[in-house]
Amino acid sequence: MEIYLIKIIIAHLIGDFFLQPTSWVKDKERKKLKSGKLYLHVLVHVALIFIIFMSFNVWKIALSIGILHLIIDALKSILQTRKNARILFFIDQFFHFGSIVLVWHIFYKAYINVSFINETQVWLLIAGAMFLSLPTSIIMKVIIAKWLPESDDESPKSLQNAGKYIGILERVLIFVFILTNHFEAVGFLLAAKSIFRFGDLKEAHDLKLTEYVLIGTLLSFGIAIIVSLAMMGLVMH
Question: Which sequence ranges form a coiled-coil region, renumbered to this chain (predicted)?
Answer without folding.
Answer: none
